[in-house]
Amino acid sequence: MNFLAPLFLLGALAIAGPVIFHLIRRTTREVTPFSSLMFLKATPPRVTRRSRLENLWLLLLRCLVIALLALGFSRPFLQKENALALPGASAGKRTVILVDTSASMQREDLAAQARAKAEAIVRAAKAEDEIALLAFDRAPRTLLNFEQWRKATPDARVAQAMQKMQTVVPGWSGTGLGTALLQAAEMLNSPSEGQSPALEIVIVSDMQEGSRFDGLQGYEWQRGITVRVEPVVAKKLANAAAQWIADSEEVETANEKSGPRIRVMNSAEAHGEQFALEWSAKNGAPAEKLDVYVPAGQVRVARPPLPEPGAERLALLGDEVSFDNALFILKPQPVQAPLLYVGNDANEDSTGAFYFLGRAFQKTPSLRVDVRATRGDAPVPAFQLQEAQMIVLGEMTGDAALPGIRQFVSDGKTVFAPLANAASAGTLARLLEAPAFTATEANVKDYGMLAQIDFQHPLFSAFADPRFSDFTKIHFWKHRRIETTALTGARVLASFDDKNPAIVEVPLGKGRVIILASTWRPADSQLALSSKFVPLLYAMLEQSSKLPPRKAQYFVGEEVPLPPGAQPFKVRKPDGVEIETAAGSSFADTDQPGIYGVTPGTLRFAVNLAPDESKLTPIGADRLGSLGVPLASMLKPLVPHSPEEAARAQAAELESRQKMWRWLIVAALAVLLIETLIAARVSHASPSHAAI
Question: How far apart are CA 230 and CA 233, in angstroms?
Answer without folding.
Answer: 10
